[in-house]
Each structure stands twice: as structure tokens, then as C-alpha cells.
Amino acid sequence: MSNQPKTFSELISGDQPILVDFFATWCGPCQMMQPILEDTARQLGEKIKIVKVDVDRNPLAASKFQVRGVPTLILFHKGEAIWRQSGVVPAHQLVKIIDGYLTEKV
Q1: Which letter does DSSP use for residue 25 in this model?
Q2: Using omega within 30 degrees of 0 as the cis cutoff, is the peptide bond preceding 71 cis?
Q3: pLDDT tens digit sequence for 68-85
């Protein structure tokens, strides 16, 4: 396994499910998501990778996936967006949703 940085497309096209957090540094609810995402990562461990994308620094990625508001979470598996939600999602709900998709898709 190479440690070379991957493009966004390569990252979301892999076999491992990727949860992408589209956020902005000025966004209050986005800051609330940080500990929730850390908790989710702890609970799901190696089952999923969580990636943060700053919409101000990466407007093309935000535009490509029609991110209209932040935070927006999109779960990708093999390049396909299989779930998305805007707004703050509590950790227990996020883990339950992702686990459901992992059980179904993987």
C-alpha cells in the first residue's frame, strides 16, 4: 500500500467506504460535527475512512456533488454516493446509518 496522496476521485472509488464531511471553517454547526466525527471514527474503526473537505478551498468538489450547505456528509462506496445528509447528525445516529449501509453494501 502506497502512502502517496490520492486524488479525491481515487479516494472515493476504493473498496473501503469513505465518509466525506464537506465543511467550512466559519461554520458553527461544522465545528459541532468535529467531535461527532471523531466519536464515529472511534466506534467504526477500520470499517470506514472519514475525510474532511473544506468547501472554500475545494469549490469544485463541493460543486460536483451539489453541496449547497455545510456541513454535508456523503458516504461513498466504490465511487458511488450511497447516502448523504446536510446538517449536524448525532454520533449514535451516524454510526447506526453507516453500519446499516456497510452491512448492506459491503
Answers
A1: T
A2: yes
A3: 999 999 999 999 999 999
Tell me if residue 22 falls in helix, strand or coil.
strand
**What element of type H or E holds 74?**
strand 72-77
Q: Which residues pair with 81 in a beta bridge?
A: 76
Q: How far is CA 104 from CA 17, 58, 83, 97, in A?
A: 12, 31, 12, 11
- List residues with catalytic annotation: 27, 30
Check residue 41 and give left, alpha or beta (phi > 0: left; psi -120 to 50: alpha). alpha
Three-state DSSP at 85 gives strand
**Backbone φ and ψ of 84, nearest 5°:** -150, 150
Q: Which residues contact 13 (CB under 8 A, 6 or more apart)?
A: 78, 79
Name the pTM for this structure. Answer: 0.90
